[in-house]
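User: Please fill in residues for this 263-position structure.
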C-alpha cells in the first residue's frame, strides 16, 4: 500500500506546479474503477499555426490521478494551457497571450453511506485572461447520489467554500477578495459503450454574504476510445461571472480537442 501512495503523492507534486480553468471535471475518472486501485489520465493538446496573419502556438496538458480504497477516494488534477500569437509582420514584437491559465486540485471523498459521500477539496489556480493572479479554494460538504447504474450516474453536491483571490485590472493595482461561498453542483455521465462516454459538471457558486454575486461554470466532455489506453476528447467549458474584473466580460467559453492516455 505504501508504494501506490508514494507514487500518488510524487505524481501530484510534479504536475501541480503547472497549476486549466477553474472548471474541474472530477467525474471523468468515476467510470470503471471499482476494481482498480489507481487510475490515471493524461490529456495532451498541441496546435501550431503560421500564415500571413502571424504565428500561434497552443500547448496544453491536463493530468488526473485517482486512488481508491473501499470507502474513500483521492482525486488529484493539474493542468496548464497557453495560446500565444506572434505578429510576424512586426519584427521584435512581443507575443500576445490569448490563454494562459493553470490549476492544481486535490479532492477527498469518504462514503458515509451507499448514497451519501463527504467531500473535501483544495485548489489553486491562475488565469491571466480573466485577470486572476491567484485564487485559492477550500471546501467541504456532502455529495448525494441520485442515480447510479453500470452505464450512468447522476449526483448533486452542496459544499461550503472559502475563497481567497488576488485580481488586477492594472499591474500596479491588486484587489484582494476573501469570500465565503456556497458551491452547489450537479454532475452526470453516460457510458454509451466500452469506449465512448460523456460527462458534465455544472457549478453554481453564490457569495453567502451577497447572493447577487455569483458564478456559473460548466464543463462538458466527450471521450471516444481509440483503444484500451488512448482516446480522442472534445471538451466545452463555460464560465459566467456576474461580477468579474472591470476589463473582463461576464461570459467566456472555449471548445478544445485533444487526446487522453489512460494508465
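Assistant: Residues filled in for all 263 positions:
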Amino acid at each position: 500500500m505504501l508504494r501506490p501512495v508514494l507514487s500518488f503523492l510524487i505524481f501530484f507534486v510534479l504536475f501541480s506546479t503547472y497549476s486549466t480553468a477553474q472548471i474541474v471535471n472530477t467525474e471523468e475518472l468515476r467510470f470503471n474503477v471499482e476494481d482498480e486501485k489507481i487510475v490515471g489520465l493524461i490529456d495532451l493538446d498541441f496546435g501550431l499555426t503560421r500564415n500571413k496573419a502571424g504565428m500561434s502556438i497552443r500547448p496544453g496538458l491536463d493530468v488526473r490521478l485517482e486512488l481508491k480504497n473501499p470507502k474513500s477516494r483521492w482525486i488529484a488534477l493539474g493542468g496548464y494551457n497557453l495560446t500565444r500569437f506572434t505578429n510576424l509582420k512586426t519584427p521584435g514584437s512581443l507575443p500576445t497571450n490569448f490563454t494562459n491559465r493553470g490549476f492544481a486540485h486535490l479532492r477527498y471523498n469518504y462514503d458515509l453511506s451507499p448514497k451519501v459521500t463527504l467531500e473535501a477539496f483544495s485548489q489553486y489556480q491562475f488565469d491571466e485572461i480573466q485577470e486572476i493572479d491567484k485564487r485559492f479554494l477550500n471546501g467541504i460538504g456532502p455529495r448525494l447520489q441520485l442515480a447510479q447504474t453500470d452505464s450512468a450516474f447522476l449526483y448533486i453536491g452542496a459544499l461550503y467554500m472559502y475563497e481567497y483571490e488576488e485580481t488586477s485590472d492594472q499591474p500596479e493595482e491588486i484587489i484582494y477578495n476573501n469570500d465565503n461561498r456556497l458551491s452547489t453542483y450537479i454532475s452526470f455521465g453516460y457510458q454509451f459503450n466500452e469506449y465512448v462516454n460523456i460527462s458534465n459538471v455544472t457549478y453554481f457558486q453564490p457569495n453567502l454574504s451577497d447572493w447577487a454575486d455569483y458564478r456559473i461554470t460548466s464543463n462538458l466532455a466527450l471521450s471516444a476510445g481509440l483503444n484500451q489506453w488512448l482516446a480522442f476528447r472534445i471538451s466545452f467549458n463555460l464560465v459566467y461571472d456576474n461580477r468579474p474584473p472591470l476589463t473582463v466580460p461576464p461570459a467566456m467559453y472555449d471548445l478544445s480537442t485533444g487526446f487522453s492516455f489512460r494508465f
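For context: Confidence is low (pLDDT under 50) at residues 1-22.
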